[in-house]
Amino acid sequence: MANAKIIEKKSLVVDEIKNNFEGAKSVVVFDPRGLNVSEVMELRRKLRDTGSSYKVYKNTLAKRAADSLNIDLDEYFEGPSAISFSEDELAPVRVISEFAKNHDALEIKAGLVEGKVVDAKELAKYAAIPSREGLLTMLAAGLMGTVRDLSICLDLYTKQKEEN
After folding, report:
1. Whether residues 82 and 149 fall in one domain
2. Kind and range of the H or E element at 60?
3. Is 57 found in the same domain as 103?
4. What integer pLDDT is reported at residue 8 of this predicted model?
5. CB atoms closer than 10 angstroms to residue 129
6. Are both 74 and 139 inside the same structural domain?
7. Contact between 52 and 88 (Cβ < 8 Å)
C-alpha cells in the first residue's frame, strides 16, 4: 500500500495539472524524446517568451487530472509526454510546430484549443494561422488598397468632369 505522504504529493501534482488545464486557453501535448538539453532549453525559452509554460508530468497523473475535468486525452498520454499550457490560443501551437520543423525528434501528439481536443493534423492547421499582428497588418493593407483605388477613381472622375 502506498505511503500517505506519497499519495498526498501525487494529489498535489494532480491538482496543479488540473489548475493548469483550467487556466489555459490552449494546451499542447508533445513528445520531447530525442531533444538534447540545449534544444529543450531553447524550446522552453521560446515558449516562455510567448507567455507559455512547459512541464513534464507522469502520464498517469496527467491522465487523472484530464479525466477529472472530462477531457479525453488518454490516448495521447502514451510514452514520454510534455505539456505546454498557455493563455494565448495559438502561441504554443505556433512555437512548438515551428520548433518541430527544425527538430525531427519532436513529435506533436495532440492539443486542447478552446476546450476542444484536437489531433496533430488539426494543430498544424492552427499553427498556419498568422499572428494577431499579422492579421491586423493584412487588414490594414486591404483597407489601404481600397482607399487608394477609391482615390484614383475620384481623381479620374474629377478630371473627366473638368474636361466636360
Report:
1. no
2. helix 59-68
3. yes
4. 86
5. 13
6. no
7. yes
What length is written for the chain? 164
Distance CA 28, CA 123 (A): 9
Which range of residues forms the domain containing residue 89? 4-129
**For residues 27 and 25, what is the distance between their CA atoms, to the nearest angstrom?**
7
Q: pTM of the predicted model, to two decimals?
A: 0.74
**Site of grid cell 508530468:** 57
Sequence-distant (≥ 6) Cβ neighbours of residue 42 within 8 angstroms: 99
Are 8 and 88 in a shared domain?
yes
Q: What is the pLDDT of residues 26-72, one digit of tens each?
A: 899 998 888 889 998 999 999 999 888 888 888 889 899 888 888 88
| Gap between the terminal Cα atoms of the chain | 99
Report the 10 Å Cβ neighbour count for 3.
Answer: 8
Are 155 and 117 found together in one domain? no
Provide the number of structural domains found in the chain: 2
